Amino acid sequence: xxxxxxxxxxxxxxxxxxxxxxxxxxxxxxxxxxxxxxxxxxxxxxxxxxxxxxxxxxxxxxxxxxxxxxxxxxxxxxxxxxxxxxxxxxxxxxxxxxxxxxxxxxxxxxxxxxxxxxxxxxxxxxxxxxxxxxxxxxxxxxxxxxxxxxxxxxxxxxxxxxxxxxxxxxxxxxxxxxxxxxxxxxxxxxxxxxxxxxxxxxxxxxxxxxxxxxxxxxxxxxxxxxxxxxxxxxxxxxxxxxxxxxxxxxxxxxxxxxxxxxx
Amino acid sequence: xxxxxxxxxxxxxxxxxxxxxxxxxxxxxxxxxxxxxxxxxxxxxxxxxxxxxxxxxxxxxxxxxxxxxxxxxxxxxxxxxxxxxxxxxxxxxxxxxxxxxxxxxxxxxxxxxxxxxxxxxxxxxxxxxxxxxxxxxxxxxxxxxxxxxxxxxxxxxxxxxxxxxxxxxxxxxxxxxxxxxxxxxxxxxxxxxxxxxxxxxxxxxxxxxxxxxxxxxxxxxxxxxxxxxxxxxxxxxxxxxxxxxxxxxxxxxxxxxxxxxxxxxxxxxxxxxxxxxxxxxxxxxxxxxxxxxxxxxxxxxxxxxx
Lengths: 263, 306
Prior knowledge:
heterodimer, A: mainly alpha, B: alpha/beta, Rossmann fold, six-stranded mixed sheet, four-stranded antiparallel sheet, elongated
């Protein structure tokens, strides 16, 4: 034996890089579930709203329906996949017990959060990017402020990666985990203005829509692409940023304190 | 020299029920230390607090001089942990998992050391398999390889040979002795008392979250074990002769066999002389020395440790 007791040089950033690599490998290994399925779903939406209805109806002056709905569909892919990546990976790790392998290593809480978050953001970005590429077959977008659009997409994926971590930590079983997606995110997305501008709703529904945090993300993203929205970009960005910070603090507290991860 | 592990007044409760109570002990560098106790004694909770899986209610743990809470990155990189439960991750082959595991500990993959572990633990033919495809014994070996991949200074083995066959168990013992000879300190919990007796330099026995014994293995067995002297008498005895009360006498076998308990520091010859004076008609005798199993049961029986 060459000697078991002679540790190599400790590289403080290596635990983070390794965990990030592992998380990216994880979703690439099951790409049919993690990338292909959401892309097919987005393509079907694009076909329905792009090829069939898109040119015939308009809900926003100066744009056809396909142009209106595509930013929402792109962001929906980003949000769903950022959330799903963090929540399923961490929950499976908890459920199968693999999390203990990580908890005994020098991976620090900031590295833990950052690795899971970046992997989730990458998956969200890949789905969003492919959705946009496919959407070019159906409609052309004006891209009024592309950098701001990217900023909103990054903010949305960061925010839902944090929410995915929180959901994975609180979920007691697969049922409760799927409830976060089915009974919280899905209704908030559908009622948040992906398929219609909230300005066409009558009160009190239009006023209630302003309480939906997803509305600000979707509206801000669409605003940056089309140049118009239900609210100003600054308000949309401000509200979304506050929510992202709040969720990050919550996730950081959970992981830093080891709540529900360490007994 | 810094202690490999220093545990001081460690306590932990779950939902108000104490699991570990004011536990203190040290492990010297280079030793194989056994932590024994019945189910629910607090062994795994103690190990989980050392490795960081379980939060500490009160007390302190240091590994090689570093506090495992304030300097958790330093302590964790010096520990390798083989968990009691088999941890399954099916996203990587076992070779990929070993490479990744080194990275979690902040060290670059060392192909030479990885291949040596693979060879020593007979994992070679299974490198491209995911864990689910491995047999129980292979999973256990893989977990040991994973715990050693970053060359820890203290290896914690929580029931490493539970559920493995005799051949593999003996193979793992040889492996543990070898890595210990190469400088790795070992903390071992086990239910196999033979394992502890053969492997450990010192043994701590826990019961109900408390330490009930901590001694070098040989001394523990010697101090607490009792020799039994069994005498075959040529006629049935109606009563136990007077003068033998100190030896806790018992009549068995139709009153033709007399059992006497001898403390380890009592010479048999003195007792034989005393028995000879009683003219019992002894036709034969045998002595029997209890091992760690009896010591363990004696200490962990309710009240036995006090």
